[in-house]
Description:
Elements: E1 10-16, E2 19-28, H1 33-40, E3 49-60, H2 62-77, E4 81-85, H3 89-99, H4 108-111, H5 117-136
Parallel strand pairs: 2-3, 3-4
Antiparallel strand pairs: 1-2
Helix pairs in contact: 1-2, 2-5
Amino acid sequence: MEEGKRVLITTEVQRCGSTLLVGVxxxxxxxxxxxxxxxxxxxxxxxxxxxxxxxxxxFMDSAGLLLLLDLHRRAECLGLRVLVVGWQSQxxxxxxxxxxxxxxxxxxxxxxxxxxxxxxxxxxxxxxxLADCGDALPHP
Length: 140
């Protein structure tokens, strides 16, 4: 991908029994908020599982990570079991970096489901996102 070139985010929603599958493609960043919200709005009383497939997400920043965490939390409030599958290397590295667990072979995607990990990741992603936003502001 060329430096500075953005890949627009898209989602594809499918139903399979009691599972709502949301396939996400493109760059997962702040611009994805409305699409992820629209996907969650498609949940009916028949769904028990929300599966988010991110195998086509090759770039994620801290804002995108916060969006996934927010989607996860809101889906759980609806009584859904949430699974995020298909982690690619850059998003996994970002999660490992944000969580303070860098290193090759880090199974951060697996650790995402552990109690307390989401809170840790969220706090650190918020700090990272604030730092990113601060870099974008004009300096006096």
